[in-house]
């Protein structure tokens, strides 16, 4: 097995050259936000979607657009509004008076990278129109089903400070996002760099670094990254500790209403592999799971009213779980 791990590590090092290239290319436009860029790459490599929460002006839209340009992927930005209809998202059937037949007009969902901007501003029926595309990688219009091109990534944003006129995302949809990121303000040095760099009328051009087929090939390598049985058991223990905390000696039963779903263990494994790929390794370590775990779990744990009264968040609970579960 050690020989196989060395072979996979060598393959990872050969194929992960584009990680720094993409990061440097995006860095021409965006100052800082390395955390968000790394997690977008994790989502792209692990074939998972990303939900980003942050106040306006933190370069969320710019980051995903730059990523699409750097990988030569088709990009579509969809501004979610209260009057948006499902047909505006996935497309619809148009009646042709001359032929007397219906023809399919595809919507903006038919792209490689979708930015669902302010997803919580649209009603539930529009949000649910994304479910089939996100889970099955296909869209049904009328009687016809269309496969979506690969790679396919949905990055959705929501504003945490303005809740008037918004619709909470249903748990079924939130669970389909592999990662939920919380993007914060830049530090003082980064703020100064942003101020100096941005000039009126000045534009930056992102040069393509790799092609979409390179991402598909990298995904195959990511799926071959070695995960020891002890790491797999560690992932299962973490997820079960959110459902049965007393079994693991954690006093959290009165704070957790619902624990993480089985998707959490699946996504922890996939995201852990992608994170190891970014580090240039052909194997997953417990620290990889810890590093990516908060982003995988924070939106999958529903806290009780008691926890809310004590101002204990799902992130606090995830941290207690990681502190309490034995590391292999």
Q: What descriptors fit this protein?
A:
328 residues, alpha/beta, Rossmann fold, Helicase, Ruva Protein, domain 3, 2 domains, two-stranded antiparallel sheet, 11 strands, globular
Helix content: 40-55%
Cα gyration radius (Å):
21 Å
Distance between the termini: 19 Å
What value does the average pLDDT take? 84
> What order do the helices and strands follow?
HHHEHEHEEEHEEEHEHHHEHHEHH
Q: Which structural class best describes the helix and strand composition?
A: alpha/beta
**Model regions low in confidence, pLDDT < 50 over at least 5 residues:** none
Number of helices: 14
Largest sheet: 5 strands, parallel
Oligomeric state of the chains? single chain
Shape label: globular
What would CATH call the class of the largest domain?
Answer: Alpha Beta
Q: Can you tell me the CATH architecture of the largest domain?
A: 3-Layer(aba) Sandwich
Residue share in β-strands: 15-25%
Reported by name, the CATH topology of the largest domain is Rossmann fold
Number of strands: 11
**Strand line-up in the sheet with most strands:** 2-5-8-1-9
**CATH superfamily assignment of the largest domain?**
P-loop containing nucleotide triphosphate hydrolases
**Tally of structural domains:** 2
What would you say this structure looks like, in words?
The protein is of the alpha/beta class and about 325 residues long. The chain folds into 2 domains: about 20-205, 3-Layer(aba) Sandwich (Rossmann fold); about 225-325, Helicase, Ruva Protein, domain 3. Helix content is about 45%, strand content about 15%. The chain has 14 helices and 11 strands. It has helices at about 1-15, 15-25, 35-45, 60-70, 85-90, 125-135, 170-175, 190-195, 210-225, 230-245, 260-280, 285-295, 305-310, 315-325; strands spanning about 50-55, 75-80, 90-95, 100-105, 115, 140, 145, 155-160, 175-180, 255-260, 300-305. The protein has a 5-stranded parallel β-sheet with strand order 2-5-8-1-9. A hairpin with a 2-residue loop joins strand 6 (about 140) and strand 7 (about 145). Helix 3 (about 35-45) packs across helix 4 (about 60-70), helix 10 (about 230-245) packs across helix 11 and helix 12 packs antiparallel against helix 14 (about 315-325). The radius of gyration is 21 Å and the shape is globular. The protein starts with a helix and ends with a helix. The model has no long low-confidence stretch (mean pLDDT about 85).
């Amino acid at each position: 097995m050690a020989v196989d791990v060395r072979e996979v590590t060598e393959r990872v090092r050969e194929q992960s050259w584009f990680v720094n290239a993409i990061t440097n290319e995006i860095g021409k436009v965006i100052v800082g936000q390395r955390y968000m860029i790394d997690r977008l790459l994790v989502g792209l490599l692990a074939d998972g979607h990303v939900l980003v929460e942050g106040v306006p002006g933190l370069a969320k839209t710019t980051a995903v657009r730059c990523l699409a340009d750097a990988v030569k992927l088709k990009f579509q930005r969809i501004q979610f509004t209260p009057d948006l209809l499902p047909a505006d998202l996935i497309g619809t059937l148009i009646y042709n008076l001359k032929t007397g037949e219906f023809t399919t007009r595809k919507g903006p969902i038919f792209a490689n990278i979708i930015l669902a901007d302010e997803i919580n501003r649209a009603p539930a029926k529009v949000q649910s129109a994304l479910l089939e595309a996100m889970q099955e990688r296909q869209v049904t219009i009328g009687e016809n089903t269309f496969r979506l091109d690969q790679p396919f990534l949905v990055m959705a944003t929501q504003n945490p400070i303005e809740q008037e006129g918004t619709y909470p995302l249903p748990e079924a949809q939130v669970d389909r996002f592999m990662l939920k990121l919380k993007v914060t303000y830049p530090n003082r040095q980064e703020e100064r760099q942003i101020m100096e760099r941005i000039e009126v009328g000045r534009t930056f051009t992102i040069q393509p670094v790799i092609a979409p087929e390179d991402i598909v090939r990298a995904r195959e390598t990511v799926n071959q990254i070695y995960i020891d049985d002890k790491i797999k058991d560690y992932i299962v223990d973490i997820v079960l500790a959110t459902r049965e905390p007393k079994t693991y000696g954690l006093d959290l039963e009165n704070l957790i209403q619902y624990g993480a779903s089985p998707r959490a263990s699946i996504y922890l494994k996939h995201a852990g592999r992608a994170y190891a790929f970014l580090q240039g390794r052909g194997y997953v370590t417990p620290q990889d799971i810890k590093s990516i775990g908060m982003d995988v779990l924070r939106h999958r744990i529903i806290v009780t009213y008691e926890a809310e009264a004590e101002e204990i968040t799902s992130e606090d609970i995830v941290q207690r779980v990681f502190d309490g579960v034995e590391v292999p």
